[in-house]
Design goal:
The chain has 16 helices and 22 strands. The chain has 544 residues and is α+β, with helices and mostly antiparallel strands.
Length: 544
């Protein structure tokens, strides 16, 4: 490796620290340079790799004679067009299968159900954990006379093992290098391959199709030492980065808590003064969104105006509309709900606010799926909303549509400015999808629609539902046979705060403003991440 490449690699550590996936790419670059002969200097006095091939062949013969391995078929010579890049003098291209032989069999294997938490002998399998468990059966112990490499046939996980062990479960391939090949070098070589991901299918065949750049033995030692040194620096950078990230998240969490507990302006000032530090990661932006919504539903987002008519006046108007619809037969008369006792209230509301339930402010409509076998019901012009359509807060249309005949088969038309919500299936994603429909529509059985008696309150109700999302997911969902669903009766009677109508408008306007700011923060993070990645890639190209 020349000094220019070495200097660029050193500079690369600072660039890698800044980029989100920089350290991962730096590790990959180190292995790439190593296998191209660009990580350490070559020594013309080293015995060339061609001599190692003779030693490999001699050990193969000894192992065959001793009955430890079967006689291997001669491999086809490597053609010029198969060679991916030119190697330094003294190196040789070989097929990977020429560098190792397999060991271990079913006699040394233990099933997953038989793993112990503690025991005499470690169990190594193809999982992510280096040691998967333990075993006390001496007869299962695999004795090794040199370090070996474990390759996960299903998982592609690669491990360097230098002690006796028991083989765990299935899919474990053990690569034992021939003597003139350092196990540690072969381990780094295996890590450098970009194997095609086949899911849980077999990968060992893909690995064995690879070619191996084989350097002289002294250079293998130098490469391994240099990789270990640079990898240790990557580990230190990763640890430092994780510590800084944890500190940033902790500082932000403290600011958010102060914002929620005592919004006197100081927390907002702190957040605004440290935007660049606090909002370099999207996790913090997501927490800010949650905090804004929580402030809104606790009356701490905008100042109260004593001139606003109290929410009790709004509730009188809602009650009047409810009775009108009952008389017209458009909604069923509901039983009077029990009075909300003071001890049932989660927190004290600002003056002029009232605690209400969903059944106080609107009525619910359900949905269904018309028969798929009746073509007269489908491909019409009336939106039929299902969970897959619930991807934004304002719903303009849906992927599927029904006809008037489809509606007549038992579907309800949902009036505009209703609150659509997924009450099962979509909740599995640990979100509570809600939206306002801007067009009349129908819904399927996985959704419910809350139709407000006063549609002017729809935007506030939407924000309130988002503000209580975590409560709804944690307290008001039940696990079914295959999906989670909403405990609907409890949900319909959930108490939430209702501010005066003018304050609802101020809250909605302020949230729109702050959510736009959050969108900008997210975009800035994406742009910064993209620039860091571009810089990282540019540096990598120069180094290579």
């Amino acid at each position: 490796m020349n000094k220019q490449t070495a200097n660029l690699l050193e500079q690369h550590f600072d660039t890698a620290f800044s980029a989100s996936d920089g350290i991962k790419k730096l590790r990959e670059l180190i292995l790439t340079l190593a296998m191209q002969g660009k990580l350490v200097e070559q020594d013309p006095n080293d015995q060339p790799a061609s001599e190692l091939l003779k030693e490999i062949e001699a050990e193969k013969q000894r192992l065959v004679t001793a009955g430890k391995i079967k006689k291997l078929k001669a491999l086809l010579p490597i053609k010029a067009e198969e060679v991916p890049y030119e190697l330094p003098d003294g190196w040789e291209w070989v097929r990977l299968t020429e560098t190792y032989f397999g060991i271990g069999n079913k006699q040394n294997q233990i099933q997953t159900k038989d793993y112990l938490e503690k025991g005499r002998f470690p169990v190594i399998d193809q999982g992510k954990s280096f040691i998967a468990g333990y075993c006390n059966e001496n007869s299962l112990l695999l004795h090794i006379d040199r370090p070996v490499i474990i390759f996960g046939d299903h998982t592609k996980n690669i491990k360097y093992v230098d002690f006796d062990f028991v083989i765990g479960a299935d899919g474990v391939k053990i690569l034992c290098p021939f003597r003139p090949v350092l196990t540690r070098f072969l381990y780094f070589l295996a890590l450098s391959y970009n194997l095609t991901d086949r899911g849980y299918a077999r990968h060992f065949k893909v690995l064995n199709e690879k070619m191996a750049p084989l350097p002289p033995l002294p250079e293998q030692h130098r490469i391994v030492a240099r990789i270990d040194q640079l990898t240790a620096r990557c580990d230190e950078l990763e640890k430092l980065r994780n510590q800084l990230e944890e500190k940033r998240l902790a500082v932000h969490a403290a600011a958010i808590r102060q914002l929620l507990d005592a919004p006197d302006g100081s927390a907002w000032d702190f957040i605004q003064q440290h935007f660049n530090e606090l909002y370099s990661v999207k996790e913090n932006v997501a927490e800010l969104r949650k905090a804004i919504l929580q402030l809104a539903v606790t009356g701490k987002l905008v100042p109260q105006d004593p001139n606003d008519p109290p929410a009790s006046e709004l509730l009188k108007e809602i009650e009047a509309e409810k009775k009108r619809l009952e008389r017209a037969g458009k909604v069923k008369k509901l039983k009077l709900l029990p009075y909300i006792k003071p001890e049932e209230l989660p927190y004290q509301l600002p003056r002029g606010w009232e605690w209400v339930t969903f059944l106080d402010v609107g009525f619910f409509l359900g949905g269904k799926t018309p028969s798929k076998n009746n073509s007269q019901y489908w491909d019409g012009c009336i939106p039929w909303v299902s969970p897959k359509d619930m991807k934004c807060l304002e719903l303009q249309d849906s992927e599927d549509h029904v006809t008037v005949a489809g509606v007549d088969s038992g579907l309800a038309i949902i009036p505009i400015e209703s609150l659509l919500m997924v009450v099962r299936s979509g909740i599995l994603r640990r979100t509570f999808p809600v939206a306002i429909n801007n067009v009349p529509c129908t819904i399927n059985q996985d959704l419910k629609a809350l139709v407000p008696y006063q549609t002017e309150c729809s935007n506030y109700l939407l924000l309130m539902l988002r503000g209580f999302e975590q409560f709804i997911l944690e307290k008001l969902t039940k696990q079914g046979v295959t999906v989670e669903s909403l405990k609907f009766d409890e949900f319909a009677n959930t108490k939430f705060p209702c501010p005066p109508f003018p304050e609802q408008r101020r809250i909605v306007a302020r949230i729109d403003q702050l959510m736009a700011l959050c969108d900008q923060l997210g975009q800035q993070i994406d742009i910064a991440t993209s620039k860091q990645t571009e810089l990282l890639n540019a540096v990598m190209v120069h180094v290579e």
